[in-house]
Amino acid sequence: MMESKFLFSFTYLFLAVFLGLLQSFQIVSIGSVSPDFLLLLTIVYALSRGSFKGEILGFFMGLTLDLMSGALFGLNAFVFTLVGTCAIPFQKIAKLPNIIVFILYIVITTIIKYVLYHMFFIIYEDTLLFDFYFFLKIPGEIFINIIFGSILYIICASLDKRENYEWF
User: Fold this and answer.
1) What is the pLDDT of residues 124-165, one digit of tens each?
2) 99, 142 in Cβ contact below 8 A?
3) What's the Cα-to-Cα distance from 90 to each of 83, 108, 115, rounded to whole Å?
4) Which pTM does this prediction carry?
5) Fewer CB near the last or first residue (10 Å), C or N of the chain?
6) What are phi and psi of 21, to 5 degrees?
7) Where are the domains of the chain?
């Protein structure tokens, strides 16, 4: 039992490092839109393991992204912690199949992420992020997050071998 938990944790750690590298080097992108792999991993982990573990992973994923990006320090940690915390309550409210909840949660969290970014940039840097390009990027990132999130969902479901990865 302990060995399988260690192997599971090591697998998620490897997956987080691999996806973080993919995200930081923007290897996978369509035009200028690339998937937010660390956000997707946080969502998958929070929906499968619970809000508390999701918020812990979200905090460290966001902190890692803050260290790599150089933007407002702590903003990504806040957003990802919020994403990890709200996953299970959203799943309980939605009462839909898990994959549908997962896709809806990707859409909602991507929109909320950009709204929070915009609010914090107005408050702390006195700059506006909303422009024509900004409104084109959000639907593109939602679409690409749904595609790669579904693939990540299937991969994590096969790694986890738990019953709470139901398609319907």
Assistant:
1) 877 666 666 777 788 999 999 999 999 998 888 887 765 455
2) no
3) 10, 10, 19
4) 0.86
5) N
6) -65, -40
7) 35-160
